[in-house]
Each structure stands twice: as structure tokens, then as C-alpha cells.
Amino acid sequence: MRPLITIAICTRNRAAFLEKAVRSVLAQANDDVEILIVDNGSTDDTATFAVKLSDSDARIKYIAEPTTGVSAARNAALHRAKNEWIIFLDDDAEVEPGWLANYESFLSRPPSPRVAVVGGSIIPRFEIPPPKWVDDDDGKLDLGPEPFCFQDGGSPWEGNCAYRREASLQAGGFDAHLGHRGDAIGGGEGGDLNLRLRDAGYEIWWLPGVAVQHHAHAHRLNLKWHFYAAFGEGRSVAIQRLKSCTGRTRTFYIVARLLIAPFHCAVNLLVALATLPFQDGRMAVKAMTRAASIAGMAFELSRHLQACFRSNSGNLA
């Protein structure tokens, strides 16, 4: 029996890429597949294109989610989807042949009734030749040709990943504080939800044969964007870490991390300086990226510490 599947494409100001993503899915979708286009506050032609497409194809539904953030858009899809499984696909990705059929095959006969998440390969498609300092595996996810259950806390990436809808909603959905929000870069929303699902007794799986080609935009292939992204990722890591801390433990963690952050940044910058002549600068860029991530984490922790002080001051007043 074919599983009931919804495919959700959350999008913001990428009408041209969105059309390619939707067309690639439509070429594989049967009549019982639902396709949700979740528009997260686009100001380009996204709404016009999506509404026109939904009017011409009963499989497609258009949703406008005004709350900025990919997590808000994904949560809207979780609430509005009508089927048991929802596959999230990035708006600048195109699925490879057999993508949907292989998802359907796995989900119709899952290896365990506790499977709640399963995802597959993401292959970058560079818009321009990448600089020499870009690592060969940058933006690429490929964990091999055999399916397996993650045992070490790892996860597939949420840009090509299926979620059991009810289990995801029961776990609280995606954290709106994580992930991209407008032009602000973030991450970790998928791994965060996956951790809560795993804590609830569910399993996270890797599935070969469901690869997507992901567009690597030219404007992202520069050091400025690279470090900005690392800074945003560091902020997301801080938010996730603080979830496991409460009370005095939380305050101690924040203060300790803030005290050692300058030292960690300095060490990585020294490593970057020392390794700059080697491997076309790849080692140096990795070290500088770590420094940017540490800086982002420290920035977010300092915001939480300031909020804590303001709260305590208000209570004393």
C-alpha cells in the first residue's frame, strides 16, 4: 500500500528556483500526493506563480505564512498537511530520478514502527566554479549506499527529509528561534526536533536513492557570506545548548563559555594565519570559520545573560 505523502516546499523570494523545484516533483508525483508551497513573506512573484500553479493542479496548495522564519513555515506545513508523512524540500533544490518512488517504498514498509524521520543525499550544484578554498564536501551530504538508523545523534539535513507528521507535532514541531529568519542566517532546527523525537523513543534513518541537487548560489561563494553563515550557526548552537541548562547551571555555563570564547577565537585565528599558505587556504578558512562560529555563540550567550540580568533587576525593583 502506497504511503500518504505531503511534500512541503517552504520558500521566500525565490520564484525562479521555486518553479524548478516544483516541476521536478510534479514529474514524479501521483494524484494522491499533496504538494504544499509555503510562502514565508515573499515580495517577488512567488505568490503569483504559486497561486496560478495551485489553480491549475489539484495536487498543489498555496499557504501564506507571515511569521518570518523557516521554522514557522515548516510548522505551518506540519499543521496544514493532510497526510501521514511530510517531506521537506528546499525551494532551490531539484529532485533526482527515483526520489519519490524510493521514499514511498521505504515509508510503505519501514524497518521499524518507531521511524519518525528519514532523509537522504544533498548534492551541491554550483552556480559558478567555487573558489579554491571551498572544501570538496562543502554543502554536500552523502552517507553511503545502505540505509541505517542513526545511533550517534546524527541526522539527515532538513532540506531533504521526511517527518512523521503526528509525532513531529507531539514533539513540539520546529523551534521558531532556530533556522533562517528572513535575511538572518541560522540553523539547527531539524537536528533540534530530531533530538526531541529521539528522546521520545523514535528513530532517525538514512535513506540512499533519494538524492536532490541543491543550488549553490554565486553570492554565497565568498568569505564574507561564509563567515556570516558561521556566525549565525554559532548563535543557533548557543540556543540549543541553553535548552539543556536551567537555573544556576545555565548561568554558570553562559559565564564559562563567554570567558573562554576570546581564547578560542584567538587560537583559531592564529591557526588560520599559520596555515594560510597551505591547501589553497582551506585549512585557514576552516579555522576562521570556527572563530566566526565561536563569536556567534558568544554573542547569543551574552544576549541571554543580559536578559537574565534585566529580569533579575526587574524582580528586585
Beta-strand content: 15-25%
**SS elements, strand count:** 11
Order of helices and strands: EHEHEHEEHEEEEHHEEHHH
Count up the helices.
9
Q: What does this molecule look like?
A:
The structure is a single chain. The chain is an alpha/beta fold and 317 residues long. The protein has 2 domains: 5-220, Spore Coat Polysaccharide Biosynthesis Protein SpsA, Chain A; 228-316. The chain is built from 9 helices and 11 strands. The protein has helices at 15-26, 46-56, 70-80, 99-108, 165-170, 189-199, 223-243, 247-275, 282-316, and strands at residues 5-11, 34-39, 60-64, 85-89, 93-95, 115-119, 122-126, 148-149, 160-164, 203-206, 212-216. β1 (5-11), α1 (15-26) and β2 (34-39) form a beta-alpha-beta unit. The longest helix is centred in the C-terminal third of the chain and has 35 residues, at 282-316. The protein starts with a strand and ends with a helix. The mean pLDDT is 94.
